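With this grant's support, we have paired protein sequences with backbone structure tokens. One protein thus recorded is set out beneath this paragraph:

_____
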Amino acid sequence: MNQRDILIEKYATELKEKFGLTPDLKLLTQVAIGLGPSIYKPDAATISSSDPSEIARVKTNFLINKLGLEDSAMLDTAIADILNTYGASNRKKYRAVVYYLLTMHFGKESVY
């Protein structure tokens, strides 16, 4: 098992344990691949929910630029809901997990 497969397995476990979901492993793998080498870097692999600039990057770079969504308060609400469900005290909010959940939330699986 290579490093990426190990990480995808970790993300799948997060989705099961924290969100009660059985993930679509094909989609989860595509999301992880889309993140490129950032999943291997501890700081880039996670999202800091207390950093407004980090949340703005998720909104702009992922939701608007990658998924093609229009800028609206609905995007901010979706990000906040997912991060709150992930848990405010949880310092390791994996970017791949958050992006996977946002992709599913907005029904944008076809992007991958």
Observations:
- The helical segments are 3-19, 25-34, 42-45, 52-66, 73-86, 95-105.
- The chain has a mean pLDDT of 94.
- The chain is about 65% helix and 0% strand.
